[in-house]
Amino acid sequence: MSDNTISVPGVAPGWRAWLLSPTPGSRSQARLGRWFRSWLAFRRNPLAMTGLTIVLALVLMAVAAPLLSSEHEATFQSLPDRLQYFSLAHPFGTDELGRDILARVLFGARVTLLIVAMVTVIVVPIGLGIGLPSGYFGGWLDAVLMRITDIFLAFPQLVLALAFAAALGPGIENAVIAIALTSWPPYARLARAETITRRRSEFVLAAELQGASWVRILWVQILPLCLPSVIIRLTLDMAGIILIAAGLGFLGLGAQPPMPEWGAMVSSGRSVLLDQWWVATIPGLAIFIVSLGFNLLGDGLRDVADPRSS
Amino acid sequence: MIQLESLTVSYGSGAVRIDAARDVSIRVAEGEAFGLVGESGSGKSTVLRAIAGLIPEASGRIALAGETLGPKRTRALRKLVQMVFQDPYGSLHPEQTVDQILAEPVAIHRLGNADRRVAQALTEVGLGTEHRFRFPHQLSGGQRQRVAIARALILEPRILLLDEPTSALDVSVQAEILNLLTRLRRDHGLTMLMVSHDLAVIAHLCDQLAVMRGGEIVERTTADRLAVGETEHPYTAELLRSNEGFKRG
Amino acid sequence: MLTVRDLRVTFPTDRGEFVAVRDVSFSLGRERLGIVGESGSGKSTTGRAIMGLLPPAARVQAAELSLGKTDLRGLAPRDYRHLRGKRMAMVLQDPRYALNPSISVGRQIAETHRMHLHSTRKAARLAALEMLEAVQIRDPQRVYDLYPHEVSGGMGQRAMIAMMLIADPEILIADEPTSALDVTVQLQILTILDDLVRSRGMGLILISHNLHLVASFCDRVLVMYAGRVVENCPARELSEARHPYTRGLLAALPSLTHRRAELPQLRRDPAWLTDEVAGT
Predict the structure, then answer these.
(1) Nearest residue to B45 via CA among B16, B86, B79
(2) Nearest to B108 among A23, A201, A211 (CB)
(3) Which residues pair with residue C60 across a beta bridge?
């Protein structure tokens, strides 16, 4: 990469100088340089860094779960070993069916990550797909799209999830779909508001003058400006989504046994909470830490995107 | 090249009807620079935007290069006429590099050779390659306005519309941009229509000009007549006086 | 009345200190002083430094900075607040940002009067109406009850001037007071400002980017470049300015009577950043 470096007097060549170069030599260098500057600002915020560390740890846990433990261990029942306290063989003890809690928490990270990914994949495209045209065109299209949004906003999340579970059968996928279907309306409104503030911008007028189609204007000009606030919002919402997924698991409508989902683990541990507290507390702690991590990360991202608020 | 006949733009109807432009007729020959002078609310920018096709409500006849235009513009017509806006901060996308901003029109019109065209457009407006991959916030006001001019020129239009292109700039930068526009008109045979509140700026670039007030043209004159202080309408005389600065009465 | 000697304003940045104003010296009597310069020249920062309106991060140093007998250096924010409006006032470019949007124009003027002169409600109202008349607002009774968003730019700027002058300050700093206004309205506002400042024997500092305007309105002109005063001369001699920067700026202005195919472009000489000031 460094062969592209434009030598600046007094600045040692290297990847840092390359990234911070005021005269980038290529589009990707300019883009990376911008990200790197944001990263430098982000790095100065200790709480945000804590959040990022937690979220990265979650990803790492999910990826490394088979190395640290095994699928077999997470679901293997051994009634003689049930409800054991912390030991070398079972660092976090065992649950009421004698399964290793550490292994279940590790594999539970995969489930949590699945929820995060699925909600993102469903919510962001729907929210943007409705919000951008609504804000850009206004008029009757805006009215229709926003009324649809209002209708979805009026569905109580848990009730819809219950209905879904009843209709399609309980399961983590159905639970996530139910959550996603009731979560996108705020994103549509956010994208619409961002679009409205930008659609009369002169750079959008210039694109119209060049003959760009509306799809192109939304995609090239407006979407990149809406994305940061959508991502920040999503990160902040993620804690709530994880909690709802856990709640559904707790009610028995989310992940089904023997899937190691944290909410379901808390649920199964509640009957022995007083005598064997760790069975419910360990997965509960995992939920708590990950939710906190997403919140801190979201706050940090917001501070970087909008320096005035910090 | 540009022909306007009874251009009228009005908003609302009945008692709340506001005419942003009323019965405006202009004729600009090929290669000529024509100026519209007026204060805020005079309708000068409305006329410019109507020609650009940004105001679908406009009535009257707009003809460019001999072709009468409807509210829908084809891509070829878009290529014919381009515009430079007043605010060099608002007219460039904040998250795109100069390179992306200039490559976008090339991609829209599928002109090909984007790399060469972008480099050429930058040279044309006097920007070096070191500016090519910068973001707008890394450029000065004058450099941004050069990028905006390059973006308009990259489609090789025959008509350039200028909406107060220098009023947000410092005097020394204004001179550079005005010189650039003079050179571009000469080199490319561009037809220019410029709007400004500054009589001296208009008269510098344009031989023919019209003074607008309240949506109407009140006087058509030439830079030469203004130079000797000849005016017909009292409003033009007032503008001319304002241009000379403050006089203690 | 106002004496500024070796004024220096610095702002801390990521890459060390940024000197926005350096070694600026001038004094102001009962006259109109113009400060011209391009964006970033430090002209507005100078005005704000005198008014004590810079953000707390800015560092203001001066060998002397005094209004009459009052030393302005290191003045407590409370004392500065007391001084502003009563002895020194400032008119900004856009009255819409400077006026409180939720209080009627007249009441804001009256409040200023009450605050600084401790007058009764009734006396303040009368004074405000009188002041609105003085800035040539035709129907003061009606305008008194209007809110800032209901008045035009020119009217708002008159109201702003009325509010700034009601406590009879000794000096007025006008920072681009007419730049947001139409050219024909600009001259009306300046005429009003000129009449009031002269009849009250005030000192006026007009900060502007417009050379013509400053040259025709003021008695004396300071030209600033990169935080320094490069030219200090009587306004009527501005056309014979000595400094190449001033001359370059004047030449770069398009002229109605003297049309040129090309405008001479300003070449910035690094020596201007260190040269001794001409004409002081």
Answers:
(1) B86
(2) A211
(3) C9
Give burial (CB, 10 Å; 0-12/13-18/19+) of B245. middle
Residue pair A297/A48 in contact by the 8 Å Cβ criterion: yes
Q: Is the pTM of this model over 0.90?
A: no
Beta strand pairing call for C64-67 and C70-71: antiparallel
Each domain of chain C, given as residue ranges in start order, spans 1-87+222-280
Sheet holding C88-91, edge to edge: C88-91, C171-175, C203-208, C32-36, C220-225, C228-234
Chain B residues whose beta carbon lies within 8 Å of the beta carbon of residue A25: 133
Task: State the pLDDT confidence band at B15, using cuts at 50, 70 and 90.
Answer: confident
Task: Determine whether C247 is exposed, middle or buried from the number of CB atoms within 10 Å of its CB (0-12, 13-18, 19+).
Answer: middle
What is the C-alpha separation between B9 and C159, in angstroms, rounded? 34
CA distances from A128 to A227, A238, B124, B127, C49 (A): 9, 17, 39, 37, 47
Q: Which of B239, B246, B248 to probe the C interface (max C CBs under 10 A)?
A: B246
Omega within 30 of 0 (cis) for the link into A258: yes
The percent of residues above 90 in pLDDT, for chain C, comes to: 49
Mean pLDDT of all residues in chain B? 91
C23 sits in which H/E element: strand C16-28
The span from the first CA to the last CA of chain B, in angstroms, equals: 45
Residue A275, CA distances (Å) to A250, A263, A279 in order:
20, 20, 10
Which class would CATH give C1-87+222-280? alpha beta
C141 touches chain B (CB under 8 A): no
